[in-house]
Amino acid sequence: MAATHHSLIILGGGPAGLTAGLYAARARMDHLLIEKGAEGGQVLLTDWIDNYPGFPDGLSGFDLAEKMAAQAKRFDLHSMFGNVISMDLSAPIKQLELDNGDQLSCDTLIICTGASPRMLGVPGEKELTGKGVSYCATCDAPFYRNMHVAVVGGGNTAVQEAAHLTKFASKVTLIHRRDELRATKVVQEKAFANEKIDYLWDTTVTGIEGNEGVESLRLLNRDGTKSSLAVEGIFVLIGVIPNNDMLPLDMLNADQGGFIPTNCETNTVIEGVFAAGDIRSKKVRQVINAAGEGATAVLAAEEYLTNLN
Ligand SMILES: Cc1cc2nc3c(=O)[nH]c(=O)nc-3n(C[C@H](O)[C@H](O)[C@H](O)COP(=O)(O)OP(=O)(O)OC[C@H]3O[C@@H](n4cnc5c(N)ncnc54)[C@H](O)[C@@H]3O)c2cc1C
Question: Can 139 be counted among the known catalytic residues?
Fold first, then answer.
């Protein structure tokens, strides 16, 4: 069993964690980044990224992840592969436990464990992700110019994103498992007034079909009727799941969805603990703000450490 201490531990190596790593390494802080999978996080699931500045032609998620990691490593990023399974944040020295039994401690911790989109879990979904199945209209809407697409969901995000999609798609069919939307009335009214959106109520998607790309959806109505809908894309907007298993959620005052609230400097309610990226309680989950928050968190951690000494 190893036990080591660092001034700063960054938990998670997605865009937030890698940017935090870049700033910490450049500032020559005593730091360690811990990542349980591949560096890059959700960016690795992204086929093509057109909205991260500095890359006028866009780039694949894999390329962006590789470039972010390489940039941090140029400044001697200290990182390790490891799965943190629990932590004790009740004292000024924070304790982290890995699944192999190793213990690590730190004076400051930046939580960058991210989130995952909730999936439908139906046949064809995994195979066609990035080929017509999307979980982010802000990211992918421009790829669906003049096409017929479906949106699954009934909350604010789904309904607002359906409206956003109508700027590009020729038609948007909103598929909802209930007979009324959960979105707020104002959002609903705007959507109902939009002639490009039509609705399939009491309906669930049971399969996604296509070869090179999405061609059609298999549908099931609450009354048992089966049907199919020809579309060229499907946006699954049924929620986001935070990666928070290892976090003391009560102590961090997590919101109802399990995300971590912070102030605009990324401070959580626990001194010396910061949160950045998709794990934060917020509305917009994009690479650009995850990276920005990673940078902010390191500067806040540095200030905290300076005041400790
Ligand atoms: C399909 C898809 C397409 C997208 N397209 C775009 C796009 O075009 N443009 C855009 O701006 N955004 C896009 N996004 C959103 C963007 O990817 C996220 O906002 C961004 O990756 C969030 O970064 P993050 O660092 O906060 O979290 P993540 O990217 O989720 O990274 C979190 C990291 O923490 C690690 N981790 C979690 N728990 C532990 C643990 N216990 N121990 C160690 N490591 C741990 C994970 O393995 C992961 O690598 C897309 C997302 C998806 C899913």
Answer: yes
Percent residues over pLDDT 90 in the chain: 94
Q: Taking the model in full, what pTM does it have?
A: 0.91
pLDDT tens by residue, 25-53: 999 999 999 999 999 999 998 888 999 99
Residue 305 has pLDDT above 60, yes or no: yes
- In this structure, what DSSP letter does residue 280 have? B
Per the CATH hierarchy, to which homologous superfamily does domain 3-117+240-308 belong?
Answer: FAD/NAD(P)-binding domain (3.50.50.60)
- Ligand 1 shell residues, CB under 6 Å: 11-17, 34-37, 41-43, 45-46, 49, 51-52, 83-84, 112-115, 117, 135-136, 139, 243, 246, 277-278, 285-288, 290
Domain 133-236 has CATH 3.30.390.50: no
Average pLDDT, the chain: 96
Matching CATH topology for 3-117+240-308 and 133-236?
yes
Q: 49 in helix, strand or coil?
A: strand
Neighbours of 249 (CB within 10 A): 14
